[in-house]
Amino acid sequence: MQSKLVGSMREAIRLAGLRSGMSVSFHHHLRNGDYTLNMVLEQIAEMGIRDLTLNASSIFDIHAPALEEHIRNHVVSRICTNYMSAGLGRRISEGLMEAPVEFRTHGGRPRDIALGVTPIDVAFVAAPTADCAGNCSGKYGPSACGSLGYAFPDAMYAKKVVVITDNLVDYPMQDWSIPEIYVDYVVQVPAIGNPGGIVSGTTKITRDPVGLVMAERAVQVIQNSGLLKDGFSFQTGAGGASLAAAKFLMDVMLKEKIQGSFASGGITGYLVDMLNAGCFRSLMDVQCFDLKAVESIRSNPAHQEISAMQYASPSAASAVVDRLDVVILGATEVDTDFNVNVHTDSNGSIMGGSGGHSDTAAGAKLSMIIAPLFRARLPIVTDRVSCISTPGRDVDVLVTQRGIAVNPKNAELRQRLKDAGLPVVDIHELKEIAERITGRPEKLPEGGRPVAKVIYRDGTQIDTIRCVASK
Amino acid sequence: MQSKLVGSMREAIRLAGLRSGMSVSFHHHLRNGDYTLNMVLEQIAEMGIRDLTLNASSIFDIHAPALEEHIRNHVVSRICTNYMSAGLGRRISEGLMEAPVEFRTHGGRPRDIALGVTPIDVAFVAAPTADCAGNCSGKYGPSACGSLGYAFPDAMYAKKVVVITDNLVDYPMQDWSIPEIYVDYVVQVPAIGNPGGIVSGTTKITRDPVGLVMAERAVQVIQNSGLLKDGFSFQTGAGGASLAAAKFLMDVMLKEKIQGSFASGGITGYLVDMLNAGCFRSLMDVQCFDLKAVESIRSNPAHQEISAMQYASPSAASAVVDRLDVVILGATEVDTDFNVNVHTDSNGSIMGGSGGHSDTAAGAKLSMIIAPLFRARLPIVTDRVSCISTPGRDVDVLVTQRGIAVNPKNAELRQRLKDAGLPVVDIHELKEIAERITGRPEKLPEGGRPVAKVIYRDGTQIDTIRCVASK
Fold first, then answer.
1. Angle CA(B426)–CA(B430)–CA(B436) in degrees, nearest 5?
2. Which residue of A lies nearest to B316 if distances are taken between CA atoms?
C-alpha cells in the first residue's frame, strides 16, 4: 500500500492534483490561531496556481493580510464562507474582489457541499492529531481545538483530502473523529496553529450593566416560555450578554432542579459548567470556543462531537438545531419586522456572518435575540436592517435593556410574558426609544455593486451586500 | 419537526416508500440471534410487496426457513450477501432461486454500495440502542452486539433508513455509532434478537490435537516471517485452530515483550485478552464475535469500532486490511495453485462465503491458511478447488498438520521457514499425502445451471457456483 505521508505541503498539493480554477476548502476550529490556511495558500501561490475558489467555514483576522494579497494576485478569485471578521470584511466591502463573496450558514454549507452545489477539489483539514493513514482528531495534541465538526463535510465530499498535522502518532490513533477512509494525504508541519488563538474575544461574561440586565430578562423570558422543564435543550452564542444569560439560566435550572437534555453549537466553558452541574445530559459540540471546552470534550463522554451536517444541515435526515427549545442569539441590527443582521456593521461593511444564526433560529421553538437598543450612539433597532442574515419569521423575541418585543406571529408567548409582568413592548416602540436617544440615524448611502451574496440555509439568496466607500 | 418514531414496522415500510422490485438491506451483527430480517420480511410479505432484492451482509440459519418461504413466494427474487450458512445455502445450491445469488466480500459490498452498483432503497438497521432521532449504537441495551460496522454503508447510502430497536433512550443518546443524519424512521419492537445467538459455534479454541499442531506451526511461521516485532498487526478468523493460534501467539508476544499495533476484523474474547495483556495498542472491530468482545468495545476506548468501509473497502482512501502484517484464515478446500474455497462444501453445496477472507488475504503482508489435510475422509488439498473464493496469488502459506507449503511467489519466506527448520513441503506433496490417506476423491458431478456468482472485492466475477442434485 502506498503511504499517504508526504514530505511537504508542496508535494501534497501536487499529488492532490490541484490546478488553477479549482476549489479548496478549510475549516475554522483553530479560529484566530489558525496557521494552515495561510500556509497552504502561500504554497499554492508559489506554485503558480491561480483563480481558486476558497471555501472556508469561517475567515478570521489572522487570515486577512495574506488573503488580501492572494486576492490581489488572483490566486483566490472566489470566496464561499459562513463568517468573515472585519479584517478582510472591510476590504471586501470596499470592492477588493470582483466576484461577490458567497455567505452561507453553518448548515447551508454542508448542504451545498453534499448536494454538489459547491464542489470541493481539495480539502485541507487542520488536524491537531493524526496517524499516517489520516485518522484524525481535534481533541489531542499541542494544538488541540476539540471538535472538528465543520471539517466533516469537507473530508467526506472533497475529491481529495489533505490532513495537516503537528502531532503525528502511531497507527491506529485512538478516538479519531474523521476516519482514514476519506483521507488521501497526510502532511506533518511544525505547528498548525496557536491554541491560545482559538479563544474568541467574546467568550467572557459581560460586566456591562446593560448586558447583565438583558441577560436577566432573557432568562425570565425562558422561565415563562413554558419550555423550561426536564428535557430542555438550549443554545447560546459566545457574546458577553448571551454567556451571562447562560450563567443566570444555570442558577435557575439548579434551583428548580431541571435536567435538560442537551446544549449545542459552539461550546464554551460556561456550558461545560452546566453539563458538569447536571443541567444537561449532553453537549452536542460542533466547535469548541475555549480551552475548557477542549478539555471537556477530550475527557467527558457526555460532551459529544457532532459534524456540521448533524449540527444544522437541512439536507440531513435530521439535525440537532431542529430539536432546540431555546436559542439566544446576537445582532448588529434588528428591524421592526424582526429581521436580523449579523453580517455588516453600521456602515454596511462586512464584519461577521450568519454562522449558525439562521440555522438555530429556524430550528428552535423559541429564538431570542439579545441586543442593546444602541451601540456607540447608533440605534440597533431600525426600520430596515441593511442586510438580512436571518429572516424575521424565524425570530420570536427581541430582548433589550428597555423592553422585550415579541414577534406578533407568537401571540401566545406575548401573553405569557405579559402575564408574568415582564416589560413587553411593541418593537416599533423600541425603535422610537432608540431614536429618541441616538437621534434618527443618517440613511446609509446607496451601496455600489454587489460584493457579497447572503445565501439562506435552503440555498436561496436572501440578500445582497453592496460596496461601501473606502475610508 | 416531524417525528421519526413510527408506531409499527408496517408503517415504517409504508413511509419508506418500499415497493415491489426494490432493494432492501440488512446487517448481520446479531448473527444467528437476529430477529429483524425475518420480522421485516414477514411484514413486507403481508403487505403484498414482491420481487425484492435482499442485500444482507450475511445470512444465518435463523433466517433460512422464513427466507426459503419468501423466495418460493417471490417476495425475494435476488440475494446479495457475503456469507450464507448451510441452512439456506443447501436450498440455493439445489436451485431454489432463479436468479443466481451474488456473493461479495465484506470489503466489496460497501464498495459496490458506495459506487451505486448495488443501490439500496430501504436499509433496515437492527440497533441495540437508539434515540428518537435514530442516533444508534450496538454497544448498549439488552440485545447489545458491540460493533455495528457492517451497517454503516447501508445507513450512509440507502435512499431510506429504518432503525429498529428494542432499547429506545432519550435524545441525545451517548456514544452513538451511526448518527441521526442518515436515519429516516425509528421503530420500537419488543426484541431485535437474542444476544446469546451472536456467539458463533466456532469461537472456541480447538481441543482437537490436529488443530493444536497446526496452530503451533502457524505461530512458528509468524515468528520466523520477520514480521513479528513492535508495531505488528494481526487478524484471525473465529475457527478453533485460528483461535488456538491467537492464544499461542499471545504467549510468544508476552514472552518476547512485543507490542503490536492492532488486531482487526471480527473480534473474539481471545483478542480482547491480547489487548488487555498489552499485545496490541488497539482493536479495530467491525463485528463482535462474542459477548466478551461486546463488553470490551463498550468499556475500553482502545477497542474501536470501524465501519465496513474502513475495515476493507477497496473504494475507501485506505482500509485497515491494507495495514495488516499477518492474517490467519480457514478453508474448506485449497488447491495446488493456493486458491481457496470457503463458499462450498465437499459436495459443491453452499455453506459459507468470503466474508473478509479475500479482503484480508489481499491486504496482509502474510496470508496464512490453516487447514487439515482432510476432513471426514475427504481431502482438503486438491488439484482444483470447486469454487475460488480467494485467488491463490493472495495466499502466502498453507499450514497443515503434515507440513507447511509456501506459495512459490514468496521464495524469501520459503527460505526463512526452511532455515528455521520448519517442515516446508511442496503443496503437491501435501495433496498426495492427503490422497494417500483418503483415496483420490471422486470428481464432483458436473454442476447444473449457475446458482451463485462469486464477485471479487474489485467487482469482477471470479467464479460461478452451480446447481447440485438435491438429496
1. 140
2. A181
